[in-house]
Amino acid sequence: MAEKNKLTSSQKVSNSLTSFLTNHAKLIVVIFVVIIVVAVALAIVLTSLESKRDAQFNLLLDAETEYSSLALMDSSTAEYASTLESFNAKADELVALGLDTYPGAKAQYLLADAAYENGNYQEAADMYLSIADAMSDSYMAQLCIMNAAACYDNLGNNTEALALYNRVFDTYGDESAFAPKALYNAARIYESEGNTDLAVATLEQLTGLYLETATGSASEYARLAEAHLISMN
User: Fold this and answer.
1) Which pLDDT belongs to residue 53?
2) What is the reported pLDDT for 70?
3) Which residue has the higher pLDDT, 17 or 124?
4) Taking all residues of the chain, what is their mean pLDDT, rounded to a whole number?
5) CA angle, 194 as apex, 191 and 196 as ends, to 5°?
6) Residue 197 CB contacts under 8 Å (≥ 6 apart), including other chains
7) For the residues of 161-197, what is the DSSP string, one character each?
8) What's the rounded Cα separation, in Å, for the pair 184 and 16?
């Protein structure tokens, strides 16, 4: 008869589990409730962040639309003044998010473009370079450095312009989409300053890298460099 009272392994496990659940029922309920609360809170946070992100990009879209519309308006009208004020307010709000965010950087870029178009080249250069410093690993950084170099070109500051053109190639290498243009402009400045040997060397570097490519499509700046080298001989 004693054999009949022995429990199997599965019965022992079942009894132990039942006993544990009975003795810790309140704790289990509390843990379950906490898990649900945390899950709900996380969902709310993620939804809020997504909503906030969408709002930022919608604001950026509005700013871009207003900026584009300014080019079609008469700058002497009240509509132009109102649109410009609205654009500046939106851009400033986005820049306040930080230049390491895309909405903030793009808004600053629009402000820099506006300064450039108004002939405020130093202001524009400073804004372009602040974006480049904040987003140094991005395509936008390279574009901003090139734009800043163009600003210094317009200011007649060859030293700063040359340093920025060289910065593009030195920092981002020959794979940069802007490298051919940067090299060509560096050569142009060298030549304008009478440094013909360095100008020729830079043009030869440009043609060597980009006249024949793996895709078979030469850079337009490499073709310009090739023609310019011929005219210099």
Assistant:
1) 77
2) 92
3) 124
4) 87
5) 60
6) none
7) HHHHHHHHHHHHGGGSTTHHHHHHHHHHHHHHTT-HH
8) 81
**174-200: string of b/e by CB count within 10 Å (b at 16+)?**
eebebbbbbbbbbbbbbbeeeeeeebb
Contact indicator for 60, 107 with CB cutoff of 8 Å = yes
Residue-range domain boundaries for the chain: 56-156, 158-233
Could you write out the DSSP letters of every residue in 12-24?
HHHHHHHHHHHHT
Report the topology of domain 158-233. 1.25.40
Same fold, 56-156 and 158-233: yes
Q: For residue 65, what are its two tokens?
A: 């639309």
Pick one of 3.40.50, 1.10.1740, 1.25.40, 1.20.1260 as the CATH number of 56-156: 1.25.40
Q: Which of 105, 120, 121 is nearest to 153 (CA)?
A: 121
| Residues 185-217 pLDDT 10s | 999 999 999 999 999 999 999 999 998 765 667
Task: Say whether pLDDT at 89 is over 70.
Answer: yes
Residue type at position 210: Y
Distance separating alpha carbons of residues 198 and 120, to the nearest angstrom:
31
Residue 212 has a pLDDT of 78
* The token pair that represents 140 in the structure block: 């936008």
8 Å CB contact between 147 and 124: yes
At 35, which helix (H) or strand (E)? helix 25-70
